[in-house]
Every structure is written in C-alpha cells, then in structure tokens.
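2024-03-11 09:14:02 DEBUG pipeline.ingest accepted 1 chain
2024-03-11 09:14:02 DEBUG pipeline.ingest length=371
2024-03-11 09:14:03 DEBUG pipeline.predict start
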Amino acid sequence: MEKKNLELAVQLRHELHAHPELSNYEVWTKQHLIDFLKANTKLEIVDRGRWFYAIYHSNVGKRNVAFRADFDALPIEETINLPYGSQIPGVSHKCGHDGHSATLAGFALEIDQKGCDNNVYFLFQHAEETGDGASECAVFIKENNIEEIFAWHNMSGFKHNSVLVIDGTAHCASKGMSIHMEGVPSHASEPEKGINPSFAIAKVIDAIPGFIDPDVNEGIVLCTIVQVDIGAKAFGVNAGKGVLRMTIRALYEEEMDKLQKNLEEVAKAEAEKYGLKVSFEYQDEFPETANDKESSDKIRQVCRDKGFDLIELVEAFRGSEDFGHYTKLTKGAYTYIGNGEDYPNLHSYEYNFRDDIIETGVELFKGLADL
C-alpha cells in the first residue's frame, strides 16, 4: 500500500472515530466518506440515502466484484483517553466499523490510482449492528450484477494481522423474539376472577430445553432468555399482562425457523388453554452468513501469495452478522483479521481499532480484486 494512501486512511479512521453515529443515524459518517472519496478519487459515487457505493469502471471489465464495509457505531461510552476520542456522549466505535470503512476507502484509493482488470464496487453500509443495513442494501447485488462480494471484520483473540477463513457457515442466524400475553387483572385476593399469564409463560420457558436439544438438531441451536416481564410490583394486583423476550440463534437458518415455529405453537396452545391473547414481535433479525468455498479459497490464495498468516477456523462464530443477506444472492465470503490474542474484546470499553491492520485489509482486498 502506498504510504500516502495509508496515512490518509488512518487519518480518515480517526475522524470517523471522533464522530460516531448509531445505526440508521449515520448522516455525518456517510457524507464524510463520500467527501473523502470525491476529494481523493475519480470513482463514480452512487448515493442511496442511508448508504452509498463507489464504482471503479475497468477498461477491461472482466467481471463485477464488490467489497463491503459497515460504518455504524455502538451505544457505549468512550472511556479510554484518545487524541481522536468520541465527541458524542454515550456513543463510540467499539466494534471497529470506523476501521472497516477506512480500510475500504484506502482500498478505493489504491484501485483508483493503480487500476484493475475487474469492475470494482465499494459498498459502504449503514446499520450492521441492528441487522437493518444489509437487508436494505441487498438490492445492490442484482442492480449491479455483482458476481462476487467480500467483507472482513477485525477479531480479537487471534494472532495479530493473521487472516481467518472458514467454508460454509461463518456466523449463526439470530433474531430477537418477544411473546406477548394478555389476560385479565384482578385483586390479588381473588386470582380466580382474573387470567394471569404467568403460568402460560412458564410453560413456554419449560419447553425450551427440548427444542434446543442437540439430539434433535443438526447444528447448534440456542434460545437465550433476556427478559421475563409479568405484571407490576403491586402486591394487591393479580398480573394481567406479560412478555417473554428471547434471542433465538442457530447455525443453520432453517433450524432457527423451526425453533421459532415451535415456540409460537406452544405459546398459542398455552394461551388458548388459559384464555389469553397472544402476539409475537421480532427485531434485530440476522440471516445465517454462509461462505462460498470458491470465494474462501480465493482468500486462501491471496494469503499464500502475500505471505499472510492464515488460520482455518473450525467452527462458526455464534454472534451474528448481516453480510448473509448478500451471500444469499451471489457468491462471496466473510473473513477476519486478528487484533492479537490478548487484545481487548469487541464491544468492550477498552477496545479501539488497530490502525496497523488497515494495510493488511487493503492488501487482502487488492489481491481478491485481481482474481
């Protein structure tokens, strides 16, 4: 990577870090990235509202290859002392999306200056943390006849500047599921005159271990209870409303769908038994992110060609990633670059993106762009 381009990318990362914005509110971030590309490249910019992409039109134009970076931040206070620390109270880039976008922008500089035999698309995406972004941006794939797409994430707990790869599922599918039940309140001394949802919700909870049993599922299936909210702290009132909130997760999306159906069915059955109204609510929905082996093999080839340390992952990450919306529509792969075995974890107060892995990301993308 050219020294000047790396310096510009690092400076951009620091500017993004100082002005973090939450998912679906990345107005300054998006415009700053656009301004950077307009000032430093001749790339075509396509503004799609909350997201945008840039295009390098090759004179050869063999095929259309895309690279994606996310740019939203997290609702976490910046507590470490940085010269470019967050200027937004309660919001900071504790997942490294500032670094992902700076890497993609640095890569754009290199392609713009040095060229490529393929048409290269640089996709800058909003709202990865909530799962909204890729589902909205997925139209980009068919509209531009994208034949392959790549992205990467920095990852703590692995050797610094190593590249991690896996075939098949890289991230589990997940979603937030809420089961609302409504009965009839009554005086606590006369529970028979009301309909309390507690017993029905308890039956749903009791059914969960059977649904997630490894013996009845092909891959890992999880159901994490995050909140049970029934009634109020009023000892004279028999509860009339309740909600059970869970995160459901699975290695394979079809098994997450089966878990959802099972939970809905038992909730409906218990609600009918007790005379309760029941409804369901879903949010933070993430698909299974599955890597195409051909695309993963290209990452392996680039690592061999450039001498990067390559780590073969033996299992998918349980945490979800919305990149799967793209790989449902075209070939692609999601990869990782290590922050270091003992580096602070993502989403922690102590975490800060490592500037020195920007060049690794850029060189990885450059190698993939040429294949």
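2024-03-11 09:14:41 DEBUG pipeline.report The longest strand covers residues 173-182.
2024-03-11 09:14:41 DEBUG pipeline.predict end
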